[in-house]
């Protein structure tokens, strides 16, 4: 998608049309498919090795799912482009053979197991659906669906990002979308971004030409909020945003791991420029912290440290 957008740009008038080649690299997040993300660290699991290659000039651009990119980048690296966002909602995928009986989370029998690797999803769904149980599930999309559909598999359903399902041609497996307030999605979910070196003016010019303004405003506001909250894959922070007629509406929430505590707030302000959007996100995070999110996050961090220590002993 990113390469196609770059290749579709009109050729420069004063130089040859640039060409693009792709390479694929496995990251720590890709290689470790057994340990819960909650215990593995931050978003750099998916970016660190790639950024080394970028800074060493082995590659000139990195294409990421923006939700996996840390909110603070290494020195010398910047987000050059943010492409138009797919629908960022999470979706419910029911086990094959049960689609006619179960259409929603409410339809699942008490005690049903729902698979997801996201503490954000689990925290919010425990709050809204206390009758359900949740089990960590890792692997690529095909692996997760195979685990779901296995006759002896424990899961009745999975919660997955709609954008990933659609991009990989599996949209037909979606049983129902789970929009807010049922489930606030991850920061920047559904958006692809290109990371470049901050001194690469040629790459920056190309990236600016394919950046989608509305998506950029929304995503950078969401990232600013998460940055102030010091969150990542291991923190249950959810968001929702819209941008219409120069007005940004940004909602974010922080939920305790057991779903018993939940802090949510919305800001609606003009934000036609990136700096304004980021300021909205920062202000929203500060409101959340002052409203009790700070206490929730402190408790989550202590719990993670304890569980990480216990895991290292085994």
Describe this structure in words.
By secondary structure, this protein is α+β, with helices and mostly antiparallel strands. 36% of the residues lie in helices and 20% in strands. It contains ten helices and eleven strands. Helix 9 crosses helix 10. The longest helix has 40 residues, at 274-313. The N and C termini lie far apart (43 Å). The model has no long low-confidence stretch (mean pLDDT 91). Its cofactor is dipyrromethane. One of its GO terms (biological process) is heme biosynthetic process. This is Porphobilinogen deaminase.
Strand tally is: 11
Distance between the termini: 43 Å
Reading the helices and strands in chain order gives HHHHEEEEHEHEHEEHHEEEH
Uncertain runs: none
Major beta-sheet overview: 5 strands, mixed
Number of helices: 10
Based on CA atoms alone, the radius of gyration comes out at 20 Å
Which percent band covers the strand fraction?
Answer: 15-25%
Fraction of helical residues = 25-40%
Mean pLDDT: 91
Shape: globular
Strand order of the largest sheet: 5-4-6-3-7
Category from helices, strands and their pairing? alpha+beta
């Amino acid at each position: 998608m990113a390469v196609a957008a770059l290749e579709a740009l009109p050729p420069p008038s004063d130089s040859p049309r640039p060409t693009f080649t792709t390479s694929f690299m496995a990251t720590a997040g890709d290689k470790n498919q057994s340990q819960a993300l909650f215990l593995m660290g931050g978003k750099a699991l998916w970016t660190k090795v790639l950024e080394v290659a970028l800074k060493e000039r082995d590659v000139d651009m990195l294409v990421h799912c923006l939700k996996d990119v840390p909110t603070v980048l290494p020195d010398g690296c910047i987000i050059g482009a943010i492409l138009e966002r797919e629908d960022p909602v999470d979706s419910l995928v029911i086990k094959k053979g049960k689609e006619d009986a179960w259409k929603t989370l409410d339809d699942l029998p008490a005690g049903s197991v729902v698979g997801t690797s996201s503490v954000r999803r689990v925290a919010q769904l425990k709050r809204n659906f206390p009758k359900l149980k949740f089990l960590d599930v890792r692997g690529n999309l095909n692996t997760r669906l195979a685990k779901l559909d296995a006759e002896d598999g424990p899961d009745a359903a999975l919660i997955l990002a709609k954008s990933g399902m659609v991009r990989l041609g599996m949209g037909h497996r979606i049983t129902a979308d789970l929009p807010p307030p049922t489930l606030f999605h991850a920061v920047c979910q559904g958006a692809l971004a290109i990371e470049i070196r901050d001194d690469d003016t040629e790459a920056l010019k190309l990236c600016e030409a394919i950046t989608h303004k509305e998506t950029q405003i929304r995503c950078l506001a969401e990232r600013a909020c998460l940055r102030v909250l010091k969150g990542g894959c291991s923190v249950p922070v959810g968001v929702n945003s819209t941008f219409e007629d120069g007005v940004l509406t940004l909602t974010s929430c922080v939920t305790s791991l057991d779903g018993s505590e939940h802090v949510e707030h919305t800001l609606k302000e003009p934000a036609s420029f990136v700096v304004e959007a980021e300021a909205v996100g920062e202000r929203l995070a500060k409101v959340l912290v002052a409203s009790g999110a700070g206490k929730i996050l402190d408790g989550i961090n202590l719990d993670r440290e304890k569980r990480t220590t216990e895991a290292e002993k085994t």
